[in-house]
Design goal:
This is Protein kinase domain-containing protein. It is built from 4 helices and 5 strands. By secondary structure, the protein is an alpha+beta fold.
Length: 91
C-alpha cells in the first residue's frame, strides 16, 4: 500500500487537495454500491477502513468486513419469513 489508511493520512496532517475529494467520494460511492448490490452493509465505513493503494490515480481498498451484514430488507427478499409455518411448528 502506498500510504496506509485515509485515517493515517489525516493524522499525519497530509490533507487532500480540493480537486481530489470528488474522486475520493466517487470511489467510496462505488464501494458502497458494490456492497449494496450484494445485499451487504459495511456498517463501519470510516477513514481507518479505507486503504490508499495509490493516490494518483486514486485507488482505495475497503477493509474490515467483520462488521458487514446482510441488510434486513435483503433478508426479507431472499428468505421471506412465513409466520404461519413458525406458529404451527411442534415444540
Amino acid at each position: 500500500m502506498e500510504g496506509g489508511s485515509l485515517s493515517q493520512f489525516i493524522q499525519q496532517g497530509e490533507f487532500w487537495q480540493l480537486h481530489e475529494i470528488p474522486k475520493l467520494v466517487e470511489e467510496m460511492g462505488q464501494a458502497i454500491a458494490a456492497f449494496t448490490e450484494h445485499g451487504l452493509r459495511h456498517r463501519n465505513l470510516c477513514p481507518a477502513n479505507l486503504l490508499i493503494r495509490s493516490r494518483e490515480p486514486l485507488d482505495i481498498v475497503v477493509i474490515e468486513y467483520g462488521s458487514a451484514s446482510l441488510s434486513e430488507f435483503d433478508l426479507d427478499i431472499v428468505t421471506p419469513l412465513d409466520i404461519s409455518v413458525i406458529a404451527h411448528q411442534k415444540p
